[in-house]
Amino acid sequence: MIHEELSGEIIGAAMVVLNKLKPGLDEKLYERAMMIELKHRGHSISVQASFLVSYRGQLIGNLIPDLIVMMLSSSIPKLSPVSTIHMSLK
Fold first, then answer.
1. Which residues of 30-67 are buried (b: 16+ CB within 10 A; e: fewer)?
2. Sign of the C-alpha dihedral, residues 14, 69, 3, 89?
3. pLDDT tens-digit profile of 31-52?
4. Is the pLDDT of residue 87 over 80?
5. Cβ 49 vs Cβ 65: under 8 Å
6. What global pTM score does this model have?
7. Which residue has the higher pLDDT, 45 or 80?
8. How far apart are CA 89 and CA 65, in angstroms?
9. How many angstroms separate the CA atoms of 13 and 4, rounded?
C-alpha cells in the first residue's frame, strides 16, 4: 500500500467516529466528525478541494473529494492517496 500508515490512521478514525455516533446519521455529520477526529490526531484537513481531470490532454471534468488528509507527524508531509491521484492519461 502506498500510504499504509496514513490509510491506517484514516480507517482508525472512521471506526472511532462510527462507534461513537452509530450508523444511520446523515453523511455530512460523519464527515464533520471525521474532520474533528483527524485534526485531534494531528492531521491537516482540506475540504472539497477541486482537481481538474484530463483524458488524452482534454479536460473531462472536476474531481471533488470530500476530504483530503495530510499527515504532518513526519518531516515530509504525506498526502492521502485520494489527494495525490493524477488523472491525466496520455
1. beebbbebbeeeebeeeeeeeeeeeeeeeeeeeeebeb
2. positive
3. 999 999 999 999 999 888 899 9
4. no
5. yes
6. 0.69
7. 45
8. 19
9. 14
Cell numbers representing residue 68 in the block: 483530503
DSSP strands (E only) in 1-90: 43-47, 51-55, 58-63, 67-71, 78-79
Q: Cell for 83?
A: 489527494
DSSP string across the chain: -TTHHHHHHHHHHHHHHHHHH-SSS-HHHHHHHHHHHHHHTTEEEEES--EEEEETTEEEEEE--SEEEEE-SSSS-EE-HHHH----B-
* Contact assessment for residue 64 and residue 83, using Cβ atoms and an 8 Å cutoff: no
pLDDT at res. 34: 94
What cell numbers appear for 32 in the block?
Answer: 464533520
